[in-house]
Amino acid sequence: MTEQKSLLNRALPGLLIAGSLGGVATIMAGLLAFITPVDDGSDGAVPMAQSGQGGETIGMYNVANAFVLPSVGPGGPNKPLAPAVLSAPPPAPAGAVVAPIKPTAKKAKPTRIRIPKIQVNAPIGGVTVDSKGELQAPPTSKPNLTGWYRFSPVPGEKGPAIINGHVTTKSGAAVFRRLKELAKGDFIYVYRSDGKVTRFTVSGIEQVKKSAFPTKRVYGNVTNSQLRLITCGGMVGANGHYDDNVIVYAALSKKKG
User: Fold this and answer.
1) Domain limits of the chain?
2) Can you say whether the dihedral through the CA atoms of 207, 209, 213, 214 is positive or negative?
3) Which single residue of 27, 84, 151, 216 has CA 20 to 30 Å from 15?
4) What are phi and psi of 129, to 5 degrees?
5) Per-residue pLDDT tens digits for 45-54
6) What is the DSSP secondary-structure string of 147-215?
7) How far apart are the C-alpha atoms of 178 and 57, rounded to whole Å?
8) Residue 3: what are its φ and ψ, rounded to 5°?
9) pTM confidence score
10) Which residues have CB under 8 Å from 119's CB, separation 6+?
């Protein structure tokens, strides 16, 4: 992790931000290798979902480096929750997709996420990188709060919107504790400050080693509106951090408002 932080710190001054008409920024794919993977540590210096002290693990499978799928799997009962090869693209949408929402001069923000299958109905706050270039998560004092990466697209607009959340905190289970249960075809609803409601359909899910985080697949530019949900998973190591990340991929399938 130290090496990745160092690379990111050196790369940050040169990061190029590609925006749409409304100024929605996405990270250029050519520099994605420098983005720090999501972590779930017990101190403030660790990026993304923190803690790892709650005793809960994610995933029905202990992902081994030798067990890699050719593409992101669909998830669901009796399906391996395993990583895809790094060169694999994001999974294809599960069904028909709709055109992205056009950004306006006044940028909207996501305010709430609802995932009926796993009983998530949670507010969304904003997260960014800190002075060390580490992608942050909501405070552990608010285990039901999710975090939208402010320099990713607004959910519903073109590109991959990124939302993270804790699986556990020191006080116990947190908002994304059941994220591993999602499967292809499940619905995710994101509500926005401009009154628009977006529905995303899950296209795939994987569990990956943090040392082999699929940065380009998660953050790379896409031609439609997509969503990534990220939390931690696997086993808690001796350092108090989870070994893996659980990543859900979804595409915009409905919009209203």
Assistant:
1) 2-256
2) negative
3) 84
4) -95, 150
5) 223 333 333 3
6) EEETTSPPTTSSEEEEEE--SEETTEE-TTTTGGG--TT-EEEEEETTS-EEEEEEEEEEEEEGGG--H
7) 10
8) -65, -40
9) 0.76
10) 178
